[in-house]
Amino acid sequence: MVLLGTLQLTDEERALLAGDEGPGVRRAMEMVVALARIYRAERLLPIGSAQVAGVSYANIGDAGLDFLRAWADEGARVRVPALLNPAGMDRQAWQEMGVPADFAAKQSAIVAAYARLGVRLTCTCAPYLLEESARLGDHLAWSESSAVAYANSVLGARTNREGGPGALAAAIVGRTGDFGLHRSGERQPRDRFRVSAPLETAADWGALGAEVGRRTQGVPWIELEGPAQASADSLTEAQLRDGLRALGAAGAASGSLALFHVAGLTAEARAGLVAPPAGEPQVIASLRESYERLDGDTVPLDLVASGCPHASLEQLEAVARYLDGRRVAVPLWLTVGRGVAEQARDCGLAGRLEAVGARLVSDTCVVVAPLREMGITAVATDSAKSACYLPGHQGVAVRFGSLERCLDAAVRGRWA
Amino acid sequence: MTVVLEGRIIKEGTAEGTALVSPEPIGFLGGVDPATGVVREKGHPLEGESVAGRVLVFPRGKGSTVGSYVIYALARNGVAPAGMVLADCEPIVALGAIMAGIAVVDQVDLSRIRSGDRVRLEGGTVTVG
């Protein structure tokens, strides 16, 4: 007898919980039901897709590998599209990246276990760049924090920030609990920000996101005015999208941002589904402090990295254009989903990037690759999210600045 | 004297063992050695104690969500708690316990349980003594 409290299950859901489809599905249903009960959901919701984090061997280790294999052995398989987050290495070019062979063997085994579970081996945090992955109002179970912020905010879909096992469980039963950001009331903004600082580059948007993430525990409402609005107006659609992704990624890294609204720009604000909260806004007139907080003081660099979240084709094009005719002196990684890398190859962009010495790195990023084991101790990046995580999680020194400044540093071999 | 406490089932099952009570939350990633089951968080009230085979009683989990995998690893290595009793279970412990197959009950009045007490979990009932 399972006491379900206020949670109502359909007959089909009860059958899954009873083990009618085997022990692996029952285990997944137990996980989904436990989460639903902890958060006092009254029902489960069908989901359109899941996005599953917990892939890097550096992160989940042998225990994670053992569990995924055991779950696959129990017959668990996903029943909705499930997209895999980045792994700890480029699955094709790990040797050239300098990833140790024993790490690579474990990493390959983890990816193979996900494949047995039916998860698509997208290995990206930005699955939305190549396909329409969700629409306004869709319920999802996504887990990588920047993808969650993007899906909720820019696409207007509905997902909590699921843990890796929770998202996978949701994919296996095709459902998640109706709580948190699945509910309209929880999506209303609480904290109001008025931003006038210019937002010309993805780094600026990221610095803003880091600042907003630090200042709010809830859902922020962001209004742009003056130079901020002027810069937003001057950006292309792709640049604006990349700015919003940088904002969400950084806010999720510096705080716990999972949904933000920007007046006139994000999905639910545009659709009139949310209104500005009452009260005086907090004013952000300068991003200097946020930049200073994210930036370190190392001068020599082992690596310059861009593409966290995974870069768009437009961002790759900007690198090729800026570096045209020059050549980098330290490794420059452009981390991208494999699909975007293939597009770059098809249109000749990959060749131009190779000519300046840049490396397209797929399936992974600087947040989850085993940097220390690869001898990397100092990284420059235009990603505020990376700058948040690298010192603490990876133990490497970081410099943070605009893409142009990072690329100049890559050419010079040192930060200036 | 036997005390019977009622709670909410997070992971169904039965378990029996000697209570190990922590007044502080437990972070499994970095806080508990997956190979030995020994609590290694510096300054933690349970530092140096082993959770293996005990009924682990604590307010809630804390820290990294990778802690779920640590709970699973404890079970794989044969050093997991027999069961867990919490005040407020959160997703890290809930998912870890389901992955590992460890019975968990929460929303229990922990002040009624002392380290060393004999504790039995069955359904949502926690019997002490």
Any overview of this molecule?
The complex is a heterodimer of chains A (416) and B (129). Chain A is of the alpha/beta class. Chain A is built from 17 helices and 14 strands. In chain A, helix 13 links the parallel strand 10 and strand 11. Chain B has one domain: Glucose Oxidase, domain 1 (3-Layer(bba) Sandwich), CATH 3.50.30.10. Chains A and B meet through helix 2, helix 3 and helix 7 of A and strand 2, helix 1 and helix 2 of B.
Brief digest:
With about 425 residues, chain A is α/β, with parallel strands linked by helices. In chain A, about 45% of the residues lie in helices and about 10% in strands. Chain A folds into three domains: about 180 residues, Aconitase, domain 3; about 100 residues, no CATH class; about 120 residues, 2-Layer Sandwich (Aconitase, domain 3).
Strand order of the largest sheet of chain B: 1-8-7-3-4-5-6-2
The helix/strand class of chain A is alpha/beta
CATH overall fold name of the largest domain in chain A: Aconitase, domain 3
Secondary structure: number of strands of chain B: 8
State the CATH topology of chain B.
Glucose Oxidase, domain 1
Could you give the order of strands across the largest sheet of chain A? 12-11-10-13-14
| Poorly predicted parts of chain B | none
CATH class of chain B: Alpha Beta
**What's the total count of β strands of chain A?**
14
Which structural category fits the helices and strands of chain B? alpha/beta
Going by CATH, the architecture of the largest domain in chain A would be: 2-Layer Sandwich
Counting DSSP H or I runs of 4 or more residues, the number of helices of chain A is: 17
CATH superfamily of chain B: Phosphohistidine domain
Amino- and carboxy-terminal Cα gap of chain A:
66 Å
Could you give a short account of the major beta sheet of chain A?
5 strands, parallel
Q: Order of SSEs of chain B, N→C? A: EEEEHEHEEE
Give the oligomer, counting copies of the same chain as homo and different chains as hetero: heterodimer
Radius of gyration of chain B: 13 Å
Spans of chain A of 5+ residues with little confidence (pLDDT < 50)?
Answer: none
Helix % of chain A is 40-55%
Strand residue percentage of chain A:
5-15%
